[in-house]
Amino acid sequence: MGATLGIGIAILLWSAAAALSLPQTVAATHFLARSPVTLVHEFSHVVAATLTGGFSWSLRLSGAGGARVRSVHLTLASHLVTPLAGYLGPPLVGAMVVVLDVKMNGAMWDSAPVLLFGIVGVSCLLLSRDWRALLASAWLLALVGVLMQTGWTLLAPIGLALCLVGTVDTIRLVILHSRFGSDMPSDAVDAGRGVVPPVAIAVLWATVAIACTVAAVLVIARVL
Q1: Are 123 and 140 spatial neighbours (Cβ–Cβ below 8 Å)?
Q2: What is the phi/psi pair of residue 193, to 5°?
Q3: DSSP state of 152
Q4: What is the mean pLDDT of residues 77-99?
Q5: CA–CA distance, 63 with 27 (Å, rounded to integer)
Q6: Residue 102: band (very low, low, confident or very high) from pLDDT cuts 50, 70, 90
Q7: pLDDT at res. 202
Q8: Which pLDDT does position 221 carry in this prediction?
């Protein structure tokens, strides 16, 4: 009941905002729809830095959907691995969410992805250094609350959406680096370190993302 009321209020607020300024409302809607994927991407950098001997201290989001986590690398492993992690995060997390929701039935397994999204939201909230990052983190935590109210029924679609968006992002990166080479700044350029062509890094990410998406689709298809 609470989730339905919240959705109804959100629709009313969106309609009122669209009546006042449709372009700004569409831009804000895109930001909110996109921000959970962006936060999972940036959180992947944070986890990679922490596990390999570094730490992260700042998260900033731009109005165009870009984001940047600032990390300090205390080891060579952290310096090399952290840039690789971002684009791997959304498809891997998405596939994991689908498998846990569909294959591992039960409250414990279903609550694990929700707990993960909660950890992402809280971590990004603590790292936020601008209002966009604060808003995106609060929005993700609000979505976690909705998931808890709806009894996890949205987990598989959310996991598949993470896989699909991750795939689109990586394919787009392959196309851009095929055209502009190293002239376009990105995680692929940082990961390549001037040794590996960024397009090769992007192809690796795209391959993983496509594999995760196919796996998620097959898992869901078997229960339909």
Answers
A1: no
A2: 55, 30
A3: T
A4: 92
A5: 9
A6: confident
A7: 94
A8: 87
Residue 9 pLDDT exceeds 60: no
Radius of gyration, CA atoms only, the chain: 18
The predicted-structure confidence for 195-217, as pLDDT tens digits, reads as follows 899 999 999 999 999 999 999 99
**Rounded CA separation 43/53 (Å):** 16
Report phi then psi at 64, rounded to 5: -85, 5
The first and second tokens of residue 114, run together, are 């929700």
Residue pLDDT, tens place only, 115-148:
889 999 999 999 999 888 998 899 899 888 888 7
3-state secondary structure of 73: strand
Angle between helical axes of 155-180 and 198-221 (0-180°, round to 10): 160
| 19: exposed, middle or buried (Cβ count in 10 Å: 0-12, 13-18, 19+) | exposed
63, 31 Cβ separation under 8 angstroms: yes
Question: In the predicted model, is pLDDT for residue 64 greater than 60?
Answer: yes
- Length of the chain measured in residues: 224
- d(CA 63, CA 16) in angstroms, rounded, equals 22
Count other C-beta atoms under 10 Å from residue 88's C-beta.
20
181 SS3 class: coil
Q: Which two tokens stand for residue 145?
A: 């609350």
Q: How many CA atoms lie within 13 A of 170 on its CB side?
A: 30
Sorted by sequence, the CB contacts under 8 Å of residue 85 that are 6+ apart come out as 44, 45, 47, 48
Helix (H, G, I), strand (E, B) or coil at 105: coil
